[in-house]
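Could you join me in thinking about how sequence relates to backbone shape in a protein? Would you write everything just below, so we can both look at the same thing?
***
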Amino acid sequence: MENEAICALRVFLPGVNEFPIEQARHWAESYYRVIKSTGKSLLKSIPDAATFRRKLGRPVIRLIDEYINPDFVTRSGRDKQAIMDKLIARFHDRKTARKYFNNVKRAYRTVKGIPAKRIKDSLSFSAAEYALKMTFGAWRFLGPIQGQGRGAFALAEAYLCGQLKASSLARPQDEITINQSVCLTTPARVNEFRMKLHNQLMHSAANIIDRRYADRVIRAENDAINRLINKFARKEFVPFSSGGSSHIDFVVHPDSIVPDDSLEIADIKYRIYESFLGQKMADHLKSRCQITHRVTKVRPEEYLGRSNKLFYADMHLDVQVMKK
């Protein structure tokens, strides 16, 4: 009897996925509302110099002591012992604790219970930076596209963990060839499988992007994903291998490359900055962007695998499950 394909889909991963402005704004507003109580809680948890040394000084000293190589010597000639002696002396100096308390009070300063304007401005900038980081980072894998469906990895995990109505999580960009979710592992191990698969997908995708979509990196990460699945998959399925009958593989779309110094990326950054910081500040920040590419059509071979070029590219996660 021939092997039978029982599940097949292509899950789209955009090179850039704009993070919802309202979600970032909600985070900033929520933090703004608790500024007063946060400052009070910090000062209450560390009320004096002795507590400062015990709760902050000792853990920092211990961490640095473990981190520094015993043979390390600075350019000025200090060895590890000299560094640690200076650090310990600094934490036992009364001025250090006093600076900490003053900085906490300054950071959470309020006027008649209302946080200082600079705090609100700082939060607006932080919210913009957070939205940018998610737009060009994890939101590509975890978030819906323009509010539709669910994140790419949520869809893949639903199909491989036997979730009912997994297709309801799909987005228009996804391609579902054989619409059947299948639980690859036993019911007792499904939660562990879902967690480890999610972590592996996140790690692999991030590494592929960090290494500029180099072929050898994509192959290595695809092999790692398929090896993980084989540790959980029941024997009734054809063993998983990159490019094999049963597989889960990242595939890059070379024609989708958008350089970081392109007008398209500058416009995305501008929209985010304008939403949080206003048009004047957004204009100022955009004027500092070096726009090299007015047209985003580029030669893929000049970018893929090149560590000196920052760019974004679409991918898809190719999933196929064969039953023996």
Observations:
- The chain has a mean pLDDT of 88.
- The beta strands are 4-13, 110-111, 114-115, 175-178, 247-252, 258-259, 311-312, 315-323.
- Residues 190-210 form the longest helix (21 residues).
- The two ends are 8 Å apart (CA to CA).
